[in-house]
Automatic annotation (TrEMBL):
Keyword rRNA processing: yes
Biased composition (Basic residues): 79-93
Domain of life: Eukaryota
Basic and acidic residues: compositionally biased ranges: 35-51
Residue ranges of domain Clp1 P-loop in the record: 357-491
Name the UniProt record assigns to this protein: Polynucleotide 5'-hydroxyl-kinase NOL9
SUPFAM superfamilies: P-loop containing nucleoside triphosphate hydrolases
Keyword ATP-binding found: yes
Gene Ontology molecular function: ATP binding; polynucleotide 5'-hydroxyl-kinase activity
Length: 729
């Protein structure tokens, strides 16, 4: 009964109060008089507050449009370019075999035999396409021989530089590009776009995209490894590729461009359509100055970017072959094949795969690839999130159970969504309360239907020492695990191998091996431990085991990107200027209708509002009804309860007893919320420091504060710094 239909109320956006226990310090809140409230309705608890609409910030220029950067890259590429030592020979002409000459053609393209044994295609009309095909037929079948596509263009490998000018064409009327790829050719790029497979098949991060399917968004930001599109072999080798390609290209290209690409279409070709992509997420992220180059190549790849291709104007920047995309080792591929085969085969119940390994070893990437491959064979995959610091579908600090039905073709911040079940733990690490972590995971597992036959993938933290390793032992014992995939690097797993034999004697935080007596081996009471398949994967990508040092590549930056992506849901889905958070309309909630709790530390009741104002809160549903004696309801301890989403506690009205909350959660779900939980996950600083439309001091930010006092500033830990003892190792 909490989130009812709302009533409007006008409030100033400059409402702030002092902020003692947190790192952001707020000014005194100013709220307009109650006489300005419109449309009072006592039965409605949640109301609208209209904010002032402000001018959006001006985004920075596109990476590829910078003339200085373009000239510098071109000069470097010319200076390092060398002539090949060996001259490549083109394929010799091959005689047309009898089987090819006698192969039946569809009725659409009937053939007539020439005196030299070749055939020319005829069409029913004298259209422009007909003339193109006549020239193409003559060039292919002249003098009774079949001239193959240029060997330099058709060979497997990376498409970059000059090759893209021969196999890619831009549309004249619409801003898109068509690319013809041969089998095993790849396109590695930075940027973002929509990809549609018009002909054949291509693969991206394990997911196969075929003709006739929908368009898929591809995200290749500088924060993660670049995406690679790879052309696959055509599953139907008997189709008439020439006639179908003509009809396909006619819809997207002009005659001259169509004629150029038709010469490169073979039975093993794939044709893809690339279109620019602009979403509320990308608009919101690009409104911040420090994120304006997020989808451009990082500094280390500047000299490897190819800036003069038909794809650049679409937001796609190809990379040369010296830049690696997703690198799979032999054990990596074998583990994927083993798990996928088990999920496709007949096993007892559904497959439950637990993926573990130390930090920065590629667990999330392995899981995304595995999910994408499984979606080639099944309609959905269940995902249990156990990594608090690097969550896949939610902001950090959450444990969740999700059903994945769409491929994951980008890093976590590009596919934020609301899980079926979620619990807000409130911290990026569970070391302060191990029991609450395990109890939360068990609560999520109990909410999953035990009759489901969908594969389940369990993600774990990169904490594999001490208590972290004991948590892994507990999880293998608590859940019906069928496969344990343990990732390592440099020939080691950085912790003991979690084999079934090892688990017979291993101790966890909550579970322990059974106590055996000397009589057990002579009695039938002793039951053998449940077995599972243990797979070891050695990852070999560049920088494995080390945290990224480039911009946007640190773990804390990844967490901020996920939270910003979640907050982008507050923006309108329609194209338009980006609205800062202080200009959006918040809900107002009575203090007596919801309970307020802090779950990551102890805060005195008198300081609770100071800590919560201007912070991120979880919107949760307690099992019992919230009762108040006339004042705010404060929780004495952290509960384990369902969470339906997040909101920003924009202000607190102490006189009228109201919370002002911004959230993108649907009002029908908000009616069930009766608890606001504050954790250690704070708003990104750019949210507070970038507020266009204000002159002077910004809301929620103050400069009238002395950081010279002992303990005045927030203690920051720089995990990337090396200790003196480690230098030179």
């Amino acid at each position: 009964m909490l989130f009812n239909v709302l009533r409007p109320h006008r409030a100033s956006s400059q409402f702030c109060i002092s902020h003692h226990p947190r790192s952001v310090y707020l000014r005194v809140m100013k709220v307009k008089k109650p006489s300005e409230v419109r449309g009072h309705a006592k039965s409605q608890k949640w109301k609208d507050v209209r904010g002032k609409r402000l001018r959006p910030p001006v985004s920075s220029s596109d990476f590829s449009s910078s003339p200085v950067m373009h000239r510098m890259i071109k000069e470097h590429q010319v200076s390092v370019k060398k002539k090949p030592n060996v001259k490549r020979l083109k394929n010799k002409a091959k005689l047309v075999s009898d089987s090819k000459k006698s192969a039946s053609q569809p009725e659409v393209n009937k053939s007539c035999t020439r005196t030299n044994g070749s055939s020319a295609f005829t069409m029913d009309s004298d259209s422009e396409d007909s003339q193109d095909w006549k020239e193409y037929s003559q060039s292919i079948h002249g003098n009774g021989v079949e001239i193959s596509v240029d060997a330099e263009d058709a060979r497997p490998g990376r498409l970059d530089g000059e090759a893209l000018h021969f196999c890619a064409e831009r549309g004249d009327r619409q801003n898109h590009a068509v690319l013809v790829m041969q089998k095993d050719q790849t396109l590695c790029f930075r940027g973002k776009c929509f990809l549609t497979c018009l002909y054949g098949r291509v693969e991206v991060m394990g997911f196969t995209i075929e003709e006739g399917q929908q368009s898929y968004p591809l995200f290749s930001p500088a924060s993660h490894f670049p995406l690679t599109v790879r052309a696959l072999e055509n599953s139907d080798g008997t189709r008439d590729d020439r006639s179908e390609a003509s009809l396909i290209l006619r819809k997207h290209l002009a005659a001259a461009s169509r004629k150029k690409l038709l010469k490169r279409v073979t039975s093993n070709s794939s044709i893809i359509l690339l279109e620019p992509m602009e979403t509320p997420l990308t608009r919101f992220l690009s409104s911040f100055t420090e994120l304006s180059e997020l989808f451009s190549p990082p500094v280390s790849e500047l000299m490897s970017a190819v800036l003069d291709t038909p794809l650049n104007g679409l937001g796609v920047i190809p990379l040369v072959s010296s830049v690696e995309g997703l690198k799979m080792s032999k054990s990596y591929k074998e583990a994927l094949n083993s798990v996928v085969s088990a999920c496709k085969g007949d096993i007892d119940g559904c497959a439950v795969i637990l993926v573990c390994g130390t930090k920065n070893v590629g667990k999330s990437t392995f899981i995304r690839t595995l999910i994408n491959i499984l979606l080639n064979h099944t309609t959905s995959v269940d995902y249990l999130e156990g990594d608090l610091g690097q969550t896949e579908f939610t902001p950090a600090g959450c444990l969740s159970l999700s059903t994945v039905r769409e491929p994951l073709l980008g890093p976590p911040f590009t596919h934020q969504r609301t899980p079926e079940h979620m619990i807000y733990y409130g911290q990026s690490s569970c070391e302060s309360d191990l029991d609450r972590y395990l109890e939360s995971l068990k609560s999520l597992w109990r909410r999953r239907s035990q009759t489901r036959e969908t594969p389940v993938i369990i993600n774990t933290m990169g904490w594999v020492k001490g208590f972290g390793f004991q948590l892994l032992v507990d999880m293998i014992r608590l859940f019906p695990i069928s496969h344990v995939v343990q990732l390592g690097h440099s020939g080691s797993t950085q912790c003991p191998a979690l084999t079934p034999d090892f688990l017979r004697t291993a101790h966890g935080c909550q579970t322990h091996p059974p106590a055996h007596t000397a009589l057990d081996e002579f009695t039938e009471r002793h039951t053998p431990p449940r077995s599972y398949t243990h797979l070891i994967v050695q990852t070999e990508f560049q920088g494995v085991g080390c945290q990224g040092t480039a911009k946007h590549q640190r773990s804390n930056e990844h967490r901020e990107l996920s939270l910003l992506a979640y907050l982008s849901q507050l923006q309108s889905p329609d194209p338009g200027p980006v609205r800062p958070l202080h200009s959006l309309t918040p809900y107002q909630v009575p203090h007596t209708a919801v309970a307020l709790g802090v779950i990551h530390c102890e805060v005195a009741p008198s300081h609770m509002f100071y800590a919560a104002n201007g912070s991120l809160v979880g919107l949760c549903c307690l099992g019992e009804k919230v009762t108040s004696k006339g004042g705010p309801v404060l929780l004495p301890q952290a509960p384990i309860c369902p969470c339906v989403g997040f909101g920003v506690l924009r202000g607190i009205d102490m006189v009228r007893g109201l919370y002002f909350l911004l959230t993108a959660v649907d009002p029908s779900i908000l009616r069930n919320v009766n608890c606001l939980l504050l954790g250690a996950i704070s708003l990104p600083s750019c949210i507070l420091t970038t507020q266009p439309g204000f002159e002077g001091e910004l809301p929620y930010v103050t400069t009238n504060y002395s950081f010279d006092l002992t303990g005045a500033g927030k203690l920051r830990v720089f995990k990337g710094l090396m200790r003196p003892s480690q230098i030179g190792m």
